[in-house]
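Bit of a strange request maybe. I'm writing a small parser for structure token strings and I need a real example to test against, not something I typed by hand. Could someone generate the tokens for this chain?
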Amino acid sequence: MNENRILRVALDWSVDEIDPPRSFGGWNTGRVVQQTHESLFEDDFNEIPDSFGAPTKIIPRLASSCEVTNDYSRYIFRIRDGVKFHDGTPLNAEAVVINYERMCCPGSPFYSHAVADFNRAGVGLVKEVRAVDEMTVEFNLSEPNPEFLRYMTQEDAPGAQSLISPEAIRRFGPDGCADQAPGTGAFQFHRRFETEGGSAVELRRNDEYWFGPPQIEGIQYLPFPDLEARVQALVDGRVDFAYSLEGADLEDLAARGFSVPEFSPPYLWYLVFNQRDPRISDLRIRHAIAYAIDREALCEELFPGAAVPACSAIPPGAPSHDKNALERYPYDPELARKLLADAGIENGCVLQVEAAQAGSAQLNPGAIYDRISQDLARVGIQLDIKLHPDWVTYCNQWREGAPADISFSEMSWGMSCDLWLLQVLHGSNKSPYGFNAGYNNDSELDELLDRARKECVSSERTTLYREADALIMERLPILPLFTSRRGMIAYSQRLQGLTVINQCWQDFRHVRLK
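Reply from user aminoacidic:
Good idea to test on real output. This should exercise your parser:
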């Protein structure tokens, strides 16, 4: 490859195994997979958002069209002609069926329990997937799911509905495709190599790409877990593009000529309250914690000009996000002390909490917890903080659910699909079965989320999700702290042709390097 035509991207953590439906490495993995693998539908990366917080538009990618019944319970996809996986296997209806049998058909020889587990929120309602003819696939769902196509676009959700070669599934088995999972994307996995910052990944151009080969010849994804090292790599020209710079001096980067766009990715940094902790199960204590944390000061001190306090559990860039959502918990330490006293904690307490030391879009959990601990100490709550050194290990342990002695944990997540609320807070998704890691069990919320999920009228669905959000913000199974406004990405003038949309990953199919 021509070294001058390789795009180098700085990440904040290593990339997990490249097998999209079976991965749980966070957005860093999704950022790679977006280049190598494709779903039937994807975000439109060529259309600039209509407004600052607008959700992405979704369009056919490996499908050329889709017919949907009025009740959103049957989807018929026409598969795009002339597409091949990186190993030369043609994309057809059989390939799609095998991929989805891997996700949701226990009786199939291609079924993987791990893949099904990760993708349950997206495909759990699929009761049948069948090839109508060589290039047509029909999905029949057990109940209406108007968000089926939008959820399909989510990378590392965890898991993903990105398709891999059926020959790889046959050859390596449904659980043996790590880094051996050819996709159909504009770039193909070439190698994994070690750097000082961890495991890096190199992609090479797919010269047979169905939409035409990219102009650049390859991409290297290089991990720099330390923010200063990531910034310096960008400034020195060792990378052209960097993620997770919210804690950097963004004005200095802009003054040096780097693009530091402002946009609304579907991102929340939030606390997950363990409701099996008898203290945390008391709503007064959760409210006290919310009033005790000065979120505006946290954003200004740690991420100036980059982060803004979150007032909602629905992130920006999601269809039902309300930019006018009320601020329910202004900084009020006096009220926090009163609530703690009412709950019988007049002489203070110690809470054990945990976080990742660093990781995919985690920013700086240690500094965030230190800032939170200062606020909470002022109202009598001391934090005993445990930081996990490895991000992927933390993710897997977090998904298993909070240990009995942990009062709250943290996560940075969110989706451009409202189904995310159900995935992380519905009672049917309590850990370890799902991603309700704080064991929230709220029948009223569950009923609202169930109604919203099945509502076929878009405006009424938005109303239901916003009602659910209001209930979440009142009962606080999670506490959203902030979202990203600027600094999730920055790139040099050498990179040309990138369209920035309200998403947490980018599409490099059409970029150029000067």
